[in-house]
């Protein structure tokens, strides 16, 4: 990986349906599996760790990161496990690590989770550490306080900054269109897609002096084949009905086949697929997007061929990004697999299943000789191999 601060390994224990899993991460990480297999739980486990890295784990800090708040009996594993009933998370980079175990009483839950153990390491050196009962305020993380005194170049500081910035996006069409406010706003876009027009405007402006972003805009135009161009405007009187909610900025699309002067569409009129493409593009391309982020159900509202193309470009945008980015996302559309650059070790694919005990198992998918044979002899792409059950991550229906 190009940057020592990125998360190379994630360990999750006793959290929801995940009893004990260790996941090796790349720059692009795709999780496929049946509904209810625990894909979103992987994303949310990293979200809880993000809140812990910021110093407090409560409903507000979780919601701010796109994690669904839940009572302790829903967060703690309900299975018979060999580990304590504390939930445990650990993230490692090439040069640092952060781990934490958290507890909250099942019958009398407190507003914030209590830190039982916590450790921040830089190389082999402990930067911050707590055991049970060693800190006065058990609801306040000590790592977040310790890094204030360290240099920004310290690998432990870099890892903690990546963790604290992590967020899970779950876009929805009304928010992307600007018709509904985003419940969790942030830059460059809110967790449900708010501020999309402003973010696209920023992308267009920055691309004027940057070849990487200019190429990204060309990729977008290739994917949305019905438009000649797109921009943003704050003047919508002639192109948007007066009965429609009017955000400060709105997206404007120019249809390439309609007559000039009558070919302008807003985010309210445009296809939702175009909005989802732009949403993913600003997260992958803009320098002020989180360095580590997740998108739950990335393939929603996308035609299979468009989903495949978008994932192909996401792999390119993430792995070549000069501002460096790490992305995790879940998907159900088989076509996305055919857009993955699995020959690149920075692009990882995982099948998520429930075993006979109900535990979530996350298994990396490796393109084996047998899969290559099926691909070459029968002409089956990765998408068909998944549907046929050769990769795992499919329901028993």
Explain what this protein looks like in three dimensions.
It is built from twelve helices and 15 strands. It is α/β, with parallel strands linked by helices. The strands form three sheets. A six-stranded antiparallel β-sheet has the order 2-1-4-5-6-7, with helices on one face. A hairpin with a 3-residue loop joins strand 4 and strand 5. Helix 8 packs antiparallel against helix 9. The radius of gyration is 22 Å and the shape is globular. The model has no long low-confidence stretch (mean pLDDT 91).
Question: Strands, helices and their partners?
Answer:
Elements (H helix, E strand, L loop, with lengths): L8 E7 L2 E7 L3 E6 L5 H16 L4 H5 L8 H4 L11 E6 L3 E8 L10 E9 L2 E6 L12 H4 L8 H11 L1 E3 L3 H4 L19 H12 L3 H13 L3 E7 L16 E6 L8 E3 L5 H14 L6 E4 L8 H16 L6 E6 L15 E8 L5 E5 L4 H10 L3 H6 L10
Parallel strand pairs: 3-13, 3-14, 8-12, 12-13
Antiparallel strand pairs: 1-2, 1-4, 4-5, 5-6, 6-7, 9-10, 10-11, 14-15
Helix pairs in contact: 1-5, 7-8, 7-9, 8-9, 9-10
Summarize the structure.
By secondary structure, this protein is α/β, with parallel strands linked by helices. It has helices spanning 39-54, 59-63, 72-75, 143-146, 155-165, 173-176, 196-207, 211-223, 272-285, 304-319, 369-378, 382-387; strands at residues 9-15, 18-24, 28-33, 87-92, 96-103, 114-122, 125-130, 167-169, 227-233, 250-255, 264-266, 292-295, 326-331, 347-354, 360-364.
């Amino acid at each position: 990986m190009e940057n020592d601060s990125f998360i190379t390994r994630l360990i999750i224990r006793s959290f929801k349906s995940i009893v004990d899993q260790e996941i090796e991460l790349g720059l692009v990480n795709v999780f496929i599996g049946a509904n209810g297999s625990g894909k979103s739980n992987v994303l949310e486990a990293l979200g809880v760790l993000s809140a812990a890295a910021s110093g407090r784990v409560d409903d507000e800090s979780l919601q701010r990161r796109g994690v669904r708040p839940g009572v302790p009996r829903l967060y703690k594993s309900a299975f018979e496990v060999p580990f304590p009933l504390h939930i445990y998370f650990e993230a490692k980079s090439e040069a640092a690590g952060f781990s934490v175990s958290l507890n909250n009483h099942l019958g009398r839950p407190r507003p914030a989770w209590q830190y039982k153990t916590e450790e921040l390491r830089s190389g082999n050196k402990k930067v911050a550490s707590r055991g049970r009962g060693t800190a006065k305020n058990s609801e306040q993380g000590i790592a977040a306080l310790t890094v204030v005194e360290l240099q920004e170049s310290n690998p432990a500081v870099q890892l903690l900054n990546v963790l604290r910035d992590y967020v899970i996006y779950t876009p929805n069409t009304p928010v992307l269109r600007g018709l509904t406010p985003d419940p969790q706003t942030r830059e460059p876009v809110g967790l449900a897609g708010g501020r999309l027009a402003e973010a696209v405007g920023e992308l267009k402006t920055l691309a004027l002096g940057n070849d990487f972003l200019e190429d990204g805009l060309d990729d977008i135009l290739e994917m949305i084949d019905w438009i000649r161009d797109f921009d943003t405007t704050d003047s919508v009187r002639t192109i948007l009905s007066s009965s429609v909610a009017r955000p400060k900025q709105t997206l404007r699309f120019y249809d390439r086949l309609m007559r000039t002067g009558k070919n302008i569409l807003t985010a309210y009129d445009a296809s939702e697929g175009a909005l989802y493409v732009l949403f993913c593009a600003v997260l992958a391309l803009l320098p002020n997007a989180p360095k580590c982020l997740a998108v739950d159900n990335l393939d929603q509202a996308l035609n299979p061929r468009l989903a495949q193309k978008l994932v192909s470009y996401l792999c390119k945008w993430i792995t070549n990004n000069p501002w460096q980015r790490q992305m995790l996302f879940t998907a159900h559309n088989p076509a996305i697999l055919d857009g993955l650059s699995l020959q690149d070790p920075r692009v990882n694919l995982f099948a998520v299943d429930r075993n006979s005990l109900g535990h979530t198992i996350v298994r990396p998918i490796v393109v084996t000789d047998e899969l290559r044979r099926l691909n070459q002899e029968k002409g089956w792409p990765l998408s068909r191999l998944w549907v046929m059950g050769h990769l795992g991550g499919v329901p028993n229906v």
